[in-house]
């Protein structure tokens, strides 16, 4: 567990170690099957997998990365920008949500297991069943790592979490725990998921009222609570930016007074949350059909 947080080279060596990832997954599966999701060894295993999933898409060798995705569309060679896997056109990023993804391997090995639906379901199971805060946080954090970025892998993992594995109820429950780091990581995961436009209606329906309910009435005093507040605002921004319906949902959940109060804090110490709330307000005002409701 300590070595897995030693940086890129350490992660690379551990990912390449034959049988290591498979053994960790095997142990966790056994613990869940035996109804023992709270033992220390399970926590250690999940924390290792959490660390090994950090920046996974960026750190995979390009030759390997190309082999796990179907061939991309033929695109013109101009207007190219560097991406996770070398040179990539902006058009690919814009069309990422239409990119066909490969069929999952029925028996993944090694690094392939890190983003496979089997492990995604294991994380969601641990979030729901474990009462150890570190295990919950590591499971949420692994999913947060896997859904970061703009490539096909984060998009595929996000779709698995929301649509295939029905993970939103388990994540939503973590919004209401008392442990601040668990709550912060759950919100960060939802922020990543909410960037996918095809998932926004499901996410809004399932968790938008909960996100509004945990928004503070004012900017909180601690750094971690301040970061969590900013993350909630950016998640709500993603969900409401292109949807008047979702903006109305925020309004009916009595979110507007909270967002206004957070945006009006002048202290530099809390500017991150205030800035995020201001961005959200600006976006909400773009729905001209709601102006009269806002004014009321």
Descriptive overview:
This is PKP2 protein. Its main location: other. Residues 94-107 have a biased composition (Basic and acidic residues). The protein is mainly α and 296 residues long. The chain has 2 domains: 1-64 and 106-171, Leucine-rich Repeat Variant, CATH 1.25.10; 196-295. The protein is built from 17 helices and 2 strands. The chain has helices spanning 8-16, 20-33, 40-52, 56-59, 62-68, 90-94, 117-129, 133-146, 152-164, 168-174, 180-193, 200-214, 223-241, 244-252, 256-263, 271-285, 291-295; strands at residues 80-83, 86-89. The chain has a two-stranded antiparallel sheet with strand order 1-2. It starts with 7 loop residues before the first helix and ends with a helix. Residues 70-100 have low confidence and may be disordered.
Task: Give the topology, please.
Layout: H1 8-16, H2 20-33, H3 40-52, H4 56-59, H5 62-68, E1 80-83, E2 86-89, H6 90-94, H7 117-129, H8 133-146, H9 152-164, H10 168-174, H11 180-193, H12 200-214, H13 223-241, H14 244-252, H15 256-263, H16 271-285, H17 291-295
Antiparallel strand pairs: 1-2
The percentage helix is 55-70%
Provide the low-confidence segments as ranges.
Answer: 70-100
Taking the alpha carbons of the first and last residues, their distance comes to 54 Å
SSE string, helices as H and strands as E: HHHHHEEHHHHHHHHHHHH
- Quote the beta fraction: under 5%
Structural class, by secondary structure, is mainly alpha
Q: What would the principal axes of the Cα set say about the shape?
A: elongated
CATH topology of the largest domain: Leucine-rich Repeat Variant
CATH class of the largest domain: Mainly Alpha
Number of contiguous helices: 17
Number of strands: 2
